[in-house]
Design brief:
The protein is mostly beta strands. Helices cover 10% and strands 54% of the residues.
């Protein structure tokens, strides 16, 4: 085997170790803190059927640096909704370690406090059932509501892959720690009203959907701004497009 082939195999092996074996949680994450800024943006939410695009609603997101923490508030606006749908998440800025998460909408109320234990509650508005949360996870993790923001600030590169440890509270499915899989990152051109932008196209699946949902994030390389998100699950496709770009 010649030296050039030996070098190619070594390079591939190093890339596999560097990109393919990373398991990321708040204890070992590397974040580009310079990209994290106060930010308010709106995503238009569409359902795609064949070649037709039907608007479902909008998602307003506000990110605010508050001392050593970050506050993330999302307001989901659906025309058919009878109550506001507001999610609030607080994480530590240096590593996105979760502190608090709540979600209130017409179907349920839910809140989680993160500390030595994970405590909280879930109230189903239809049945009236209230479920208390009291867990003692053995690993470090991100809150499931924040992982899409975590991805924006990772050291993304061509061929980058990793697994993120998350915690999700869902009495109707699985509650506890699970994984998000960043399966591929590639460079792409993204067309906006102001011209072409260089983006990372990040392909993700997660255990929340039993890895049945194929999720794609289009993140501007220079700023970390999320321009578009696509979700394709069992033949159904949804797209969220940032307004004002």
């Amino acid at each position: 085997m010649n030296n050039r082939l030996n070098f190619s195999l070594l390079a591939f092996f190093i890339m596999f170790i560097s990109f393919g074996q990373q398991n990321i949680n708040p204890k070992n994450i590397s974040i580009n803190l310079d990209l994290i800024k106060d930010e308010t943006y709106t995503m238009k939410w569409y359902m795609i059927q064949d070649t037709l695009k039907h608007e479902i609603g909008t998602i307003d997101t506000k990110i605010q640096r508050n001392g050593e923490n970050i506050i993330i508030i999302t307001d989901v606006n659906l025309p058919q909704s009878t109550k506001p749908w507001v999610d609030s998440t607080v994480v530590k800025m240096k590593n996105f370690s979760p502190i608090y998460h709540s979600s209130y909408n017409q179907n349920r109320d839910m809140a989680i406090n993160y500390g030595m234990k994970v405590t909280g509650y879930h109230v189903d508005h239809k049945s009236g059932d209230k479920i208390e949360l009291n867990e003692s996870p053995t690993i470090s993790f991100f809150d499931s509501s924040a992982y899409s923001q975590v991805i924006r600030f990772l050291p993304l590169a061509e061929g980058y892959t990793c697994t993120l440890d998350i915690f999700d509270f869902n009495p109707n499915a699985t509650t506890g720690t699970m994984a998000v899989h960043v399966k591929d990152v590639s460079s792409a051109q993204f067309t906006t009203k102001t011209g072409e932008r260089e983006v990372w196209k990040v392909y993700v699946t997660d255990d929340i959907s039993d890895n049945q949902a194929n999720i794609y994030y289009y993140i501007e390389k220079s700023t970390g701004i999320l321009l578009q998100q696509e979700v394709d699950i069992t033949g159904r496709k949804m797209v969220m497009i940032r307004e004002g770009i």
